[in-house]
């Protein structure tokens, strides 16, 4: 896409550097997120030139299933032995960077990159789309249409979205919420199913 500024291609450039690749094959590459929002945060990129979920077509469904299968294997090998938290899998429906990328993130959300309500909403609202939902939409409608204004309203950028995804207690401040999460984490409360689509 010619109208994308150079900085939006930073993830694509990183994915082409062998030293950044944690896994690579003919179809995908897996990288660590450079600004993690959870203790474990990785990105799965297709090598096919697909920029966003809106560029997906039904012909990409096998690729999406492949990305999911490889992601699950990566999670079992690299993340599960190190945390009791669930691992969420999903796309941002309005991404910051181009080349489609599937987030794999532990739902402790305890990392330096999780520092704004914007970031929180990016993983705890419908702004975060599980690949199975993407597949379902492609099968039923043939394409995924996103209204960017509506998507950003869904994600939110204010304290109204700050509630614990374990016990649902509401907070007005992200720092307080993160402290609350660390207390819960000791009790393994985040080893639960939730709306953003955990793997297991």
From TrEMBL:
C2H2-type domain segment(s): 162-189
GO cellular component: nucleus
PROSITE patterns membership: ZINC_FINGER_C2H2_1, ZINC_FINGER_C2H2_2
MF term (GO), any: single-strand break-containing DNA binding
Transmembrane segments: none
GO biological process: single strand break repair
Domain of life: Eukaryota
Keywords, alphabetical: Hydrolase, Metal-binding, Zinc, Zinc-finger
Range of residues in the leader sequence: none
Classification via Pfam families: DcpS_C, zf-C2HE
SUPFAM superfamilies (alphabetical): HIT-like
InterPro entries registered for this protein in UniProt: HIT-like_sf, Znf-C2HE, Znf_C2H2_type
Name of the featured protein: Aprataxin
Higher taxonomy: Eukaryota, Metazoa, Ecdysozoa, Tardigrada, Eutardigrada
């Amino acid at each position: 896409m010619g109208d994308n500024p150079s900085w939006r291609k930073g993830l694509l450039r990183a994915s082409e550097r062998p030293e950044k690749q944690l896994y690579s094959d003919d179809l995908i590459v897996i990288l660590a997120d450079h600004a993690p929002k959870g203790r474990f945060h990785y990105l799965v990129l297709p090598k096919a030139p697909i920029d966003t979920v809106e560029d997906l077509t039904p012909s990409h469904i096998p690729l999406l299933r492949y990305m999911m299968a490889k992601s699950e294997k990566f999670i079992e090998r690299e993340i599960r032995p190190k945390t009791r938290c669930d691992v969420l899998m999903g796309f941002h429906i309005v991404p910051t960077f181009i080349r489609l990328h599937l987030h794999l993130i532990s739902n402790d959300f305890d990392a330096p990159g999780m520092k704004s309500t914007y970031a929180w909403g990016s993983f705890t609202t419908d702004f975060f789309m599980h690949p199975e939902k993407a597949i379902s939409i492609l099968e039923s409608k043939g394409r995924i249409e996103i209204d960017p204004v509506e998507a950003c309203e869904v994600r939110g950028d204010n304290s109204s979205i700050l509630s614990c995804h374990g016990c649902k207690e509401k907070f007005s401040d992200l720092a307080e919420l993160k402290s609350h999460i660390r207390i819960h984490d000791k009790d393994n409360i985040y080893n639960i199913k939730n709306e953003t689509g955990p793997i297991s």
